[in-house]
Amino acid sequence: MADPSLTRRDLLKVGALGTVGLAAGGSVLALPGLAQGNAKAGQGQASHHDMMTVGQLTPGSFNPTAFLTHFDGGSVSRLPSGQVLREYELVAEDREIEVAPGVFYPAWTYNGQVPGPTIRCTEGDRLRVRFINKGKHSHSIHFHGIHPSNMDGAFEPVHPGRSFVYEFDAEPFGLHLYHCHTVPIKRHIHKGLYGAFIIDPKTERPPANEMVMVMNGFDTNLDGENEVYAINTVAFHYQQHPIKVRQGELVRVYLVNVTEFDLLNSFHLHGNLFRLYRTGTDLQRYEWTDTVALCQGERAVLEFSYKHAGPFMFHAHQSEFAELGWSGIFLVEAPHV
Hints:
Blueprint: H1 8-14, E1 20-24, E2 27-31, H2 37-40, H3 64-68, E3 75-78, E4 84-100, E5 103-110, E6 119-122, E7 126-133, E8 142-143, E9 163-169, E10 174-179, H4 185-190, E11 194-200, E12 209-218, E13 228-231, H5 237-240, E14 243-246, E15 251-257, E16 265-269, E17 274-278, E18 287-289, E19 291-294, E20 299-304, E21 310-315, H6 319-323, E22 327-333
Parallel strand pairs: 4-7, 6-11, 12-15, 14-22
Antiparallel strand pairs: 1-2, 3-4, 4-5, 7-9, 8-10, 10-11, 12-13, 15-20, 16-19, 16-21, 17-18, 17-20, 21-22
């Protein structure tokens, strides 16, 4: 049986050389050994192909590939004034989630998943979000952006078995987020109560292959440090299941950082640079770079297209995070002739 006190640094020492265990909620769960590749073949070195978990998620579990491009526009109607009304329902519930094949974490979720659904609307829409708390603790929803004080979710915790309706006009356009703001906030966010919140400008952005990436981590042995890091919850998912894009097409990534316990998280793109629109509230000014660091709650819209075909990595440029799960691959495919 693995040592319940195993830390992330112990895990890094093992690296790609064997099977280790992670403690989750009091029980010890096996993390499948990392593929050994060249090292196993006796060549003394391993490649980036070896830096991933083995095995597959439990059937029916959260699918990061599907989440990547799923946007929830709500139930749409119009108010008597003609204003667009979008209605959503978010339910808080306790649920065990899989953060790597065979590794489970006792989470608090919105609609049974971490991250919660990506809420999407257009600037000026009226949003009506019915929140139901089916969890064992008081929770709330705090939306980033502009809204009245009584819709802020900071001072009105919703107790177990109760509900609350948040209603406000969506502004300003850009990339925002939502999360629980009930104290202790650190615990409620780390346990999984967060999601991306996109407000589109009234003038549409250029067409693109759009995707949501939420940077997060999980403290599986309750030592105040993350043992698993990921994009959209599951360690190394996009390395095992590369994201396919077409050579020359515009790719738009909505990047949000909600990592707890670490001051910064980051995104680095191989073989390319991206236009970086911080918070997405300005469509004109941008930075031209290949790496961005974000503190918790910061977000950015990244736009890029690939000149060359082939597999290209993207990962945290904190190497420790990358080796503990926050690493993926864009598989750039040449256009069909």
